[in-house]
Design goal:
The chain is an alpha+beta fold. 56% of the residues lie in helices and 12% in strands. Helix 4 packs antiparallel against helix 7.
C-alpha cells in the first residue's frame, strides 16, 4: 500500500536524515479504500439479505417445512397403487379326498393307489392328476393325493384407500402448519442475527477508521514538531535531548499508524464476511461514528419502553408450546376409532405354458369400509401422552427462564447505552479542553516558554480524549444493535425495503 511504503521509508530514515516536509506522505486513509465502492449501512444490509449464507439456509428451511406440510395433506386424498406379480410353481400342492373311486368305474382298489381309469366322456379338470401306480408298478408318488394348481400364475391390479374418520391424521396436519410457522420465525431469527452482525461489523470499520485518523494526526503532529525542533537545534536554540526526543516521538507514532491501518483492513474483511460477498471485493463504508451521536437521546427514551413481544426466542417457544399442546391431543386421539374406505380390482391367470393369447383372465374386485378400534397396546399410548405432557412442562419452565434472561439483557443494554451517552458527553468536553491545551503547549513551546515534555503530555491527552469519544459512540451503537435484536426490532418495511429507523 502507498501509506505502508511511505511509512517504511520514514521509519528507515527518520533517525538518519532531516524530515522537514515528511508530513506530506500521509494519505489520510489506507489506499485500498481510495477507489473502493462506498457502502452505507442500508446498502450493506441490503446486500447481506440476498447474499448471506445463513439467510439462504433459513429460506430453504421454510421451503422444506412447506413441502412437509403438503406431504401431510396428501394423506387426506386417496392412496392409489398398482401392482403386478408372477409366480412359477416349483412343487405343486397335493390334495387328499376320501371318496369311493368305484363310482367312476375304477373298482374298489382304486382308492388304495391302483391305476384308475375314467369312464368314456369324463375328463379330469385341468390341474388335477389321478392317483395310481408309476411306471415301476409301485404306488403313486403322491400317495393317492391330487396335485392341485398350475405351473404359472399371473396377477395384476389396482388398489385404493382413503381415510374417512381419523382424528390423529387431522391433528398431525394441524401440527405441520405450526412447523411451517416455526420455520418462518427461525428464518426471521437468522435475519435478525445477520442484521446485528452487519451493523456491528459496519460500526467496527468506522471505529477503526477513526482510530487510524487519530493516530495519523498524532504522527503528523510529531513530524511537524520534529521539523520545528530540528530548525531550532541547528541554530543552537534547542538541546540535543529535545532533538532526540522529537525523533523518538516520530518513530513511536509509526507503529500505531501501522496497527490502526491493519485494524481497518481486518474490519473490512469482517464486514465482507458477514455480508456474504467475496473477501477480495474492494469496498469502503460511508459516514462516521459522530453521525449516530445525534440520535442518542431519542434512542434512550425509546429503549426505556422496550417490549419483548417481538423477541424471536419467545416467539419460537410459544410456537413450540402450541405444537406440544397439540401433540398431547394427538396422543390422546390415538385411542379413538378410525374409519377408511378401501377398493381393489385385480386380474388373475393360471397356466402351464406361456401362450399369452390363450390365457383366461379372471377378475376380482371389492369395495368396503375398514374400521379400526384401538383396545390394548400394553400402555404404549398412555405413556406417550405422559411423555408429551412432561415436555409441555419443561417448555413452560424454559419460557420462564428465557423471559428472565431477556429482561436482564435488556436492562444491561439500556444501562450500557446510558453509560456510553454520558461518557460521550464527557469525552466531547475532554476533547475540547485537550485540543486547547495542545494548542497552548505548541505555541508556548514555539516561543520557548514550555518544554517538549509538556507538548508530549498534551498530545497524549488529546489522543486519549479523541479515542474515548469514538469508543463511547461505538459502545452505544453496539449496545443499541443488541437491544434491537433482543426486542425483535423489524428492519424491513411493508414493501420489504431496509428500514433501520435512524
Amino acid at each position: 500500500m502507498k501509506i505502508r511504503h511511505k511509512l517504511l521509508a520514514v521509519a528507515a530514515t527518520v533517525l538518519l536524515i532531516p524530515v522537514g516536509a515528511s508530513a506530506q506522505y500521509v494519505s489520510g486513509v489506507p489506499q485500498s479504500t481510495e477507489t473502493a465502492t462506498v457502502l452505507t449501512l442500508e446498502d450493506a444490509l441490503r446486500i447481506a439479505l440476498s447474499e448471506n449464507i445463513a439467510v439462504k439456509v433459513a429460506d430453504q428451511e421454510i421451503k422444506r417445512a412447506e413441502y412437509a406440510k403438503k406431504g401431510t395433506y396428501a394423506s387426506l386424498f386417496p392412496q392409489i397403487d398398482a401392482s403386478g406379480a408372477f409366480q412359477r410353481t416349483i412343487k405343486k400342492q397335493v390334495m387328499y379326498m376320501d371318496f369311493d373311486m368305484g363310482a367312476f368305474g375304477g373298482g374298489a382298489g382304486a382308492g388304495s393307489g391302483e391305476d384308475v381309469e375314467l369312464p368314456d366322456g369324463v375328463e379330469l379338470p385341468d390341474g388335477f392328476e389321478m392317483p395310481g401306480k408309476d411306471d415301476s408298478g409301485s404306488s403313486s408318488k403322491n400317495n393317492g393325493g391330487f396335485e392341485v394348481g398350475r405351473w404359472n400364475t399371473f396377477n395384476g391390479g389396482v388398489s385404493a384407500s382413503m381415510p374417512l374418520i381419523n382424528a390423529q391424521l387431522w391433528k398431525s396436519i394441524d401440527i405441520s402448519g405450526d412447523a411451517v410457522e416455526l420455520a418462518v420465525e427461525q428464518a426471521r431469527s437468522s435475519r435478525l442475527d445477520m442484521v446485528t452482525q452487519v451493523k456491528q461489523a459496519f460500526y467496527g470499520v468506522l471505529l477503526a477508521k477513526e482510530a487510524f485518523n487519530v493516530y495519523k494526526s498524532v504522527y503528523e503532529n510529531a513530524v511537524d514538531n520534529f521539523g520545528q525542533i530540528e530548525k531550532r537545534y541547528k541554530v543552537a536554540k534547542a538541546s540535543e535531548l529535545e532533538y532526540t526526543r522529537a525523533k523518538s516521538n516520530v518513530a513511536s507514532a509509526i507503529p500505531n499508524v501501522y496497527s490502526s491501518e491493519s485494524q481497518v483492513i481486518l474490519a473490512l474483511w469482517q464486514l465482507k464476511a458477514v455480508m456474504g460477498v467475496d473477501l477480495d471485493m474492494d469496498i469502503d463504508v460511508a459516514g462516521k461514528l459522530a453521525d449516530y451521536a445525534d440520535t442518542m437521546l431519542r434512542d434512550i427514551n425509546e429503549a426505556g419502553q422496550a417490549d419483548l413481544s417481538g423477541n424471536t426466542s419467545l416467539r419460537q417457544l410459544a410456537i413450540q408450546a402450541e405444537q406440544i399442546a397439540k401433540t398431547v391431543q394427538l396422543q390422546k386421539y390415538a385411542t379413538l376409532p378410525s374409519l377408511a374406505v378401501a377398493f381393489s380390482y385385480s386380474m388373475n391367470a393360471m397356466t402351464n405354458d406361456f401362450k399369452f393369447s390363450e390365457y383366461r383372465w379372471t377378475p376380482y374386485s371389492y369395495v368396503g369400509l375398514q374400521l379400526s378400534i384401538p383396545i390394548f397396546a400394553g400402555g404404549r399410548r398412555y405413556n406417550a401422552i405422559r411423555q408429551a405432557q412432561v415436555q409441555q412442562k419443561e417448555l413452560d419452565l424454559q419460557k420462564i427462564n428465557a423471559e428472565r434472561q431477556l429482561q436482564i439483557a435488556v436492562r444491561q443494554y439500556v444501562t450500557t447505552m446510558e453509560t456510553s451517552m454520558k461518557s460521550y458527553a464527557s469525552a466531547l468536553e475532554a476533547v475540547d479542553l485537550a485540543q486547547k491545551a495542545y494548542d497552548i503547549s505548541a505555541k508556548s513551546y514555539a516561543v520557548g516558554k514550555s518544554t517538549v515534555t509538556d507538548l508530549n503530555d498534551s498530545q497524549l491527552m488529546l489522543t486519549q480524549a479523541e479515542l474515548g469519544k469514538s469508543q463511547a459512540i461505538y459502545n452505544y451503537v453496539v449496545a443499541k444493535s443488541n437491544l434491537e435484536k433482543t426486542i425483535g426490532h423489524d428492519f424491513l418495511d411493508d414493501e420489504g425495503n431496509v428500514d433501520l429507523g435512524l
